[in-house]
Amino acid sequence: MPRRPLTGEPLALDLVNTWWVQDGDGVDLFDDDAALAAWLAEHDLVVAPSSHRPTAYRPALREVRTAVRGILEGTPGGVGALDAALAHGRLRLVLDDGRAGEIVELDDPAWGPAWAAARGYLDLLATAPADRIRHCAGTGCVLWFLDTSRNGGRRWCSMAGCGNRAKAHAHYHRGRRTGPRPPS
Asked: Can you give the C-alpha Rg of the chain in angstroms?
């Protein structure tokens, strides 16, 4: 099972981050059936009993992942693709024991997890400042994150990965500019 480089982001960003680049090659977490099932379980996206195997959710999840990534990257068609994904479901508002509730109605249950992630993106836009949804500043990194730092200064998907590489690179180049020190 592939090891994901970044976890714990809001659902829509976590979905986008199920595809990343490693050693120059694209890695799709959903190529591995066990990883797909684990990702669905991690987000409580499969309600038991389900008549669908986890692999039945793969096409819709990839479609929503591409749409959200397209929106984040400013690719034409991303908004239309997300709207098309959202068209697979709707919310029915209900009163349940004196409390407001929602029931998701889908045209195909296989769209359940993908629809939840698409809705999660809309919820993220409604609750988080737009400038806090960021692309990692690491060279070649394709990951996205929600900057929850107090001052809003987070630049990398992780300090242990991209942050350390960037700082080591900067340190190396500072040392090369100043050159070797003469003996004392």
From this structure: 20
Query: Cβ contacts of residue 63 below 8 Å, gap of 6+?
Result: 81, 85, 114
* Cα–Cα distance, 114 to 58 (Å, whole number): 9
Dmax of the chain from CA atoms?
Answer: 82
Closest alpha carbon to 137 in 163, 164, 168, 171: 163
Q: Cβ distance 113 to 60 under 8 Å?
A: yes
- C-alpha angle with apex 55: 48 to 142, nearest 5 degrees? 110
Reference 39, options 19, 68, 67; nearest CA is: 19
What mean pLDDT comes out for the span 103-114? 95
Six-digit token pair at 61? 């999840």
Listed in sequence order, the DSSP H helices in 43-111 are 58-73, 78-86
Distance CA 117, CA 13 (A): 9
What is the pTM (predicted TM-score) of this model? 0.85
